[in-house]
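A quick word before the example. In earlier lectures we treated sequence and structure as two separate objects. From today on, think of them as two lines of the same record. Here is Nucleotide-binding alpha-beta plait domain-containing protein written that way.
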Amino acid sequence: MNLRMESNPVLVLDESCVNQQVYAYCLLGKVKEFASLTNLKVVLVSEGFDNVKLRYMGGFWVMLEFSSEEVKMKFQSSVGIGNWFSQLQQASSDFIIDGKVTWVELEVIPLKMWSENMFKRIASNWGVLLHVDD
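And the structure line, produced from the sequence above:
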């Protein structure tokens, strides 16, 4: 009898792999509209927050890194900023994204079928339609 065993490499992660970043000056923000993610930096600059570092976290979430606690607090109390986010919370390494976003590219759709209802029907196979690029 000839048995062939497949070798599956194992990766062992230890304490040296744990993220040690301090998030004291960071917030996690969930945007209200998915489409606003592309313009978020422009919005922040127009609201007077031009030195904020942005990182896309997935789903509707971004991490905002500020230069100081004072700037972070000013950001949290800004009325204009509140219009863009449904949630703002202190960043933590324990953060878990509450959803995923998937881009689907469709080809060869006749122009007469380009309707929001058609795209919603296609998207309903996997979830909910969030945004359609023009």
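Notice the following. The longest strand covers residues 26-31. We will return to this example when we discuss secondary structure assignment.
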